């Protein structure tokens, strides 16, 4: 009987240890007494997202990032030290330090990356990976999002997740925008950015450096005028909020069991991807810009663009190229001018109807 009792006690202790180990490996929050090292991870409470160390593709560099946990395709949605890769993670830790900063420290205890400081001070700061994929630094047991000390959703990399805002806070001056990776094996800050321009009627703008490449057209209350493919669907809802405090675009999933993400890829193309369980892969749902005529100011002011024509650029009716020699050299950027100057003294006026056009901006540039 004593032997059986000892065996039972041993099994009970072993089971308890396994439960403790399983719990510790699946934690979603750390405080100032905890550290995350290479090989350890944080997992959101519902198991949707995971945070840890990774290397992209065949790269030997190590980064701290967040990725989808439940799918077979390794897909990173956020990177902390994107511009400061680690070549050696020995002694490297991710930890919360007072008064509430999340820091990545290398083996020499030097800061590789850290969240920015906050005006708020937490007595018991923690870092938590939420079910939304948002990594937050906050006061322990305080679930009020308005009191977060810092959150990764305010600093996207190349991916916009449901609940993220893309736009500008007029009160704080903070702008949230997307920045592409340099390559599939280098998540460093790339050439392309995508953000909301709140000037006039808000619209999304794609840039390469300081050069504007594409605009979605103004928000018309239903969607962006230049994105007819962005319409009501069964996967997600979307809206643009514009008031005295902020202007931002965001989206929400109709079914939280469905995975959908908005990506700015290394080539400067925005893509909407949705996960299909049956095929165990991502399916491309929407893409922009679609063709050359989507490019910003492709044919200049009062020019029209039609990808079915050769050349693709032309002038609107009663307009001619501003500089003929440039048009003959396939440089349409200076656009068109009126054949006949306006005469405001005349009492006769008329309008020319142009159908099936997409107005790209309000300054006269149009697309057929």
TrEMBL record:
Q: Which residues form the signal peptide?
A: 1-26
Identify the residues that the record assigns to the Bulb-type lectin domain, covering every copy: 27-150
Q: Which GO terms describe its molecular function?
A: kinase activity
Q: Which residues form a coiled coil?
A: none
Biological processes annotated in GO? recognition of pollen
Q: Which UniProt keywords apply?
A: Disulfide bond, Glycoprotein, Kinase, Signal, Transferase
Q: Which InterPro entries match?
A: Bulb-type_lectin_dom (IPR001480), Bulb-type_lectin_dom_sf (IPR036426), S_locus_glycoprot_dom (IPR000858)
The protein's name is G-type lectin S-receptor-like serine/threonine-protein kinase
